[in-house]
Design brief:
The structure holds 2 protein chains of 2 kinds. Chain A is α/β, with parallel strands linked by helices. Chain A folds into 2 domains: 215 residues, P-loop containing nucleotide triphosphate hydrolases (Rossmann fold, 3-Layer(aba) Sandwich), CATH 3.40.50; 70 residues, Alpha-Beta Plaits. Chain B has one domain. Chain B starts with a helix and ends with a helix. Chain B is elongated. Classes of the chains: A alpha/beta, B mainly alpha. Chains A and B meet through helix 3 of A and helix 1 and helix 6 of B.
């Protein structure tokens, strides 16, 4: 089943076209990473999906219901963490979560247990009776995540969820998002590629208000795989690798072989043939192998490649 | 249900941010001092150089002076407080992002707005009752007892008068994200109402007439201003409706 569907979405702010015919589908249960450079339209898309902004044209559906026509109904099933969460500074986190619980119509018993659970999850038990006005940005971000989860949403919209956190907090939040896999659909926008690579199983790249690509993480990584190998040898065979590298360049299946210290990067024309031939040639050359790997492209490589392609086409 | 949840939060906010206390202190202070000032003004004047001669021409203060002082103070400070406490009600929440945090949840925008008006109305009602009681008690001590029913009528009309400005300012607050801009527009509307009220004949149909009617009731005058009352109620309803229509279409 589809959790989020976007068709030909356009959003214009004066002369600026924030979204330019965006089409996207996110399957139920996915942890979807919505990637794009600043100003690509990520936040605008989330704001339209959550009913906080209106599309200039096009259609959007969340859990099968069209936005914004069914806004109040959809609101019961979604959670939202904005990029810069805001709270009433005079409230305590417990009071804020209680207020949110009341908005969702939870009973006093449900609120009490859910608040306890979420305060523990957000690591705010000790600060439960302190005014939010005195909270650090990280504490506010954790509280924002807690309030977004209070109604056990079917779709959780996260706008840059870890950008304000320190490394430890970021790790905790990402682990938590990962743990939501299968429980709800996560629609997470971020510009931090490492976060997406770590937790998302599906990725969409947006640029200038248009979807560049959307696919599973594994499919993207294999589709844009670089046909290259890296071979690192032990320092004892330093001289041997130079000779081996020079000899390798004569092979028909090798496009280039570059040596940097003890590491050789070999770009090949036939990956399958290279897999068979490389190890054999290393053994023949008597090299002591320290590391041998097929180079995996990082999401950053793919992102830059796609966005640059898009920019050139424009 | 949503209205009650939102009202509960608004009421908590009025208490926690000391707004309720401030309004109560200001209105009760002027409620208490109105009969005091009316009673002792001639004596205060005798204390200034040449004041003794002036005080001779000042008529002996009566209960009507206390009432007039009270009405003037409540109307003036009621408007000022209505403006100051309402101008940021919606604008600030939009600007800071709290409106988006809450309205992305199943909280209808009408309930969000309505709760703000109801909370402010409750606050002004409570504070006016306290101020009215304080004034009534001091007037009783310094002058004589007033007719309680007439006194209640006067205060009800004062309340309605203040509510017109609360509703108008709430509408202005829903228009913009800037508290200052909302206050400026509201002030502009108040000036316009004041100028229109100065046109002979027209003033009898505007909210300001509530004050004059209340004073007449206290003096035992039986003439009524139902049209002005209807227009005031209409202004409140139209302002709230307009605020809702504007706010429900706004992007947050």
């Amino acid at each position: 089943m589809v959790a989020v569907r976007i068709e030909e979405l356009q959003k214009v702010f004066g002369a600026f076209q924030a979204l330019n015919g965006l089409n996207l589908t996110v399957e139920e249960g996915a942890v979807f990473g919505f990637l794009g450079p600043n100003g690509a339209g990520k936040t605008t898309t989330i704001r339209i999906l959550t009913g906080l902004a209106y599309a200039s044209s096009g259609h959007t559906w969340v859990i099968g219901k069209e936005v914004p026509a069914n806004g109040q109904e959809i609101a019961r099933y979604i959670g939202y963490l904005p990029e810069e969460p805001a709270f009433y500074p005079w409230m305590t986190p417990r009071e804020f979560l209680d207020y949110v619980g009341r908005v969702f119509g939870l009973t006093a018993t449900e609120r009490s247990s859910r608040i306890k659970e979420l305060l523990a999850l957000a690591g705010l038990e000790e600060a439960a009776k302190r005014r939010i006005g005195g909270f650090s940005r990280g504490m506010r971000q954790r509280l924002a995540l807690a309030q977004a989860l209070l109604n056990r949403p079917e779709v959780l919209f996260l706008d840059e969820p870890a950008s304000a956190l320190d490394p430890e907090g970021r790790k905790e939040v990402l682990n938590f998002i990962e743990s939501l896999r299968g429980q709800c659909t996560v629609f997470m926008s971020t510009h931090i590629l490492a976060d997406v690579e770590r937790v998302c199983d599906t990725i969409g790249i947006i640029n200038r208000g248009k979807l560049v690509i959307a696919d599973s993480r594994e499919s993207l990584l294999s589709k844009y795989a670089i046909p290259a190998f890296e071979v690192e040898v032990d320092a004892q065979t330093e001289n041997g690798i130079i000779t081996w590298c020079n000899a390798l360049q004569q092979e028909s299946w090798v496009k280039s072989a570059l040596l940097q210290g003890l590491v050789a990067r070999i770009v090949v024309s036939d990956v399958e043939l290279a897999k068979r031939e490389l190890l054999a040639s290393i053994t023949q050359a008597g090299l002591i192998l320290a590391r041998y790997e097929i180079v995996r492209p990082s999401l950053e490589d793919i992102f830059l490649q796609l966005v640059n392609q898009e920019e050139k086409q424009q | 249900m949503s209205l009650f949840v939102a009202f509960r939060k608004e009421w908590m906010e009025l208490i926690r941010t000391y707004r309720l206390l401030i309004v109560a202190i200001v209105l009760v202070f002027f409620g208490l001092t109105s009969p005091l000032l009316a009673k002792f003004t001639p004596e205060i004047i005798t204390l200034i150089p040449g004041g003794a001669e002036i005080s001779k021409v000042i008529p002996t203060p009566t209960v009507w002076d206390a009432v007039a002082q009270y009405v003037k103070n409540m109307a003036q400070f009621g408007i000022i407080l209505a403006l100051l406490l309402t101008m940021g009600a919606v604008a600030l929440e939009k600007d800071k992002g709290t409106a988006a945090m809450i309205l992305v949840k199943p909280m209808p925008r009408g309930a969000f707005l309505g709760a703000k008006f109801l909370a402010l109305a409750s606050m002004f009602a409570i504070c006016l009752i306290a101020a009215g009681l304080a004034c009534y008690y001091y007037t009783l001590l310094l002058f004589e007892a007033m007719d309680i029913v007439r006194w209640l009528w006067l205060n009800a009309l004062l309340f309605l008068y203040v509510m017109v400005y609360v509703a108008l300012t709430l509408f202005c607050s829903s228009l913009t994200k800037s508290q200052a801009a909302a206050g400026g527009v509201a002030l502009g509307l108040m000036v316009v109402l004041g100028l229109v009220g100065a046109i002979p004949g027209l003033g009898n149909y505007l909210p300001g007439e509530m004050i004059a009617w209340g004073t007449r009731i206290m003096q035992g005058d039986t003439s009524t201003s139902w049209t002005a009352l209807g227009i005031s109620l209409g202004l409140i309803l139209v302002s709230l409706l307009a605020a809702w229509l504007v706010f429900k279409k706004q992007e947050l």
